[in-house]
Amino acid sequence: MATQLTKIIEEFQRWYASDVHSGRIDYYKGRITKEYLKSLSESEFKDFFVQFVSEGGKVQSGGHRGIGKFRKMLDNDFSNFRFFILEPFETVFNLKNWFKNIDKFNGFGVGIATIYLNRIDKTIYPIMNNKTTNALQKLNFKIPSTKNFNNYELVRSIQIKLIRSFPILENYYKVDALNHFILTKGQWLINEITGEIPTELTKEQFVEILFDKDITMPENIFDFQSIYSFPNHQAPANRVVRKNSERTYLLVHKKEGPYPVGPINSRIGYLGKRIAKKYPIVLNVRENAKYKYWDIFFNGWSEGNFFVWQLKSNLVKALEETGLVGDFQSADEIPEALTNKFNEGAKRTIIVNAYERSREAREKCIEHYGTICCVCSFDFQKIYGEIGNGFIHVHHLIPVSEIGENYKIDPIKDLRPVCPNCHSMLHKSKDTLEIDELKKILISVSLKLGH
Fold it and tell me: Taking 70 as the threshold, does the pLDDT of residue 234 lie above it?
């Protein structure tokens, strides 16, 4: 493995020299210091760390997902969090005890906490997140995925050996960049060394692809968002429509034959070709000897007269981690007259308006109301743990039929966080129920059941 690792690090160094990671190494220089942080007022301190968490410390993505809960924690426990943040600067600092206290601060998990430590001193503190353990496992290091203090010390011992063996790595920040390289670009190098060519893209590779403007066009994101919005992230492609300020049109229209064909097929095909040029990957071949480029993104199967596409799990994870899932309304929110215009019986048709794609509107709604269902008070993180952190649907109070082209959404007045079950019930009747109406129904049923 030593020879293989040498080749990987040589390629990494060439990549690192021109990658964004190298330009961010001192991004917080002069700001994550004891003097600067102590000089901030309470509001300035809160704003600084909300920004730090939302941008993942300029190291990891996905920090925006739990920002509402983090803000709430700051408001409720500011003094203790401020003490916690300043503690590493003290002459006597017990890292083990500090690590144990991370769980006390909702929205400031092990990943972002260790990024913060790394930003204090990149020569002392490594970063530990999912990327860290996944990359080390790729290099055949035996390390559990659990993010606790013992594993943090194990990460430190492994990474310090890497730095000593390869001084070009210099510090723990650069080793973290190596982790990113291994899970994206370097994965292909590992496969080349071992003689294996992958048949699937990893989540990390999809994240990189989604933000690569030379590969992924805005319309590709819209296509993925449309299919993401369906149950199980699957749909017959010809039942997906998109609406903009000028017109509503089918992404895929039906032609002669049993399978839908049209613009989305072409876009997915061209996207697949752009990816295949940059990322070596084994592509499945059709009977006509042409590549199945859609196979990069979807599982697919015939269902009656349609061909169903389902987003692959790593693409789903990448969309969720990057916040690119979109803000889709329920299929039942669409007026029946409009669905009939396109496809008879197309109950799963999805219309995506420009305002619904506004991640900012969704974030402001969640920042204000949190991620607990405003109908039944279901809390996904409380029930499912970290996997449920930040997950919630956003319900539009104003029916689509009442929205004109010049409508501008007010995230606080027009949106509410609801769980998927309550969201479906709100739209179960012909006339959309109001939230208070559904609450009364829920209370009435609960009383009858003796709950």
Answer: yes
